[in-house]
Amino acid sequence: MEDESKTADGRRRWQQWTEEQARAALAELAQSGLSLGKFAAFKGISVRRLAYWRTRLAEAGSPRFVGVDVSTARAATEGRVEIVVGDLTVRVREELDADRVARLVEALARRHREC
């Protein structure tokens, strides 16, 4: 990502990112508070490259449900389930329909990625 290899006429040479490099750049973008365009201009990175990796990594890490035994945590959570996706936390009553909760988490994650 920071490698400044150049062509003979001084232009920067394009280099493919690894997933680690893309995750690092997207984490830095999230921490910066800048818009995608401003961050890309500041870092000298293509907006298309950032957008591509954000989409690619979001698809790979789409929210999915994992069975969890909440019977032992019932007293502590008072009948609520907490779902954490990245820096997004959703708390719902455990008796809610799983499909409804799945749609809610998916919509929130999609909205969160767009911000």
Structure explained in plain terms:
It is a single chain. The chain is mainly alpha-helical and 115 residues long. It folds into two domains: 1-61, no CATH class; 74-114, no CATH class. It contains five helices and two strands. It has helices spanning 19-32, 36-43, 47-60, 74-77, 98-114, and strands at residues 80-85, 88-93. It is elongated, with a radius of gyration of 19 Å. The mean pLDDT is 77.
Task: Summarize the SSE layout with pairings.
Layout: H1 19-32, H2 36-43, H3 47-60, H4 74-77, E1 80-85, E2 88-93, H5 98-114
Antiparallel strand pairs: 1-2
Features:
two-stranded antiparallel sheet; 115 residues; 2 domains
- Structural class by SSE content: mainly alpha
Sheet-strand content, in percent, reads 5-15%
Number of strands: 2
Major pleated sheet: 2 strands, antiparallel
Number of domains: 2
Instruction: Please state the average pLDDT score.
Output: 77
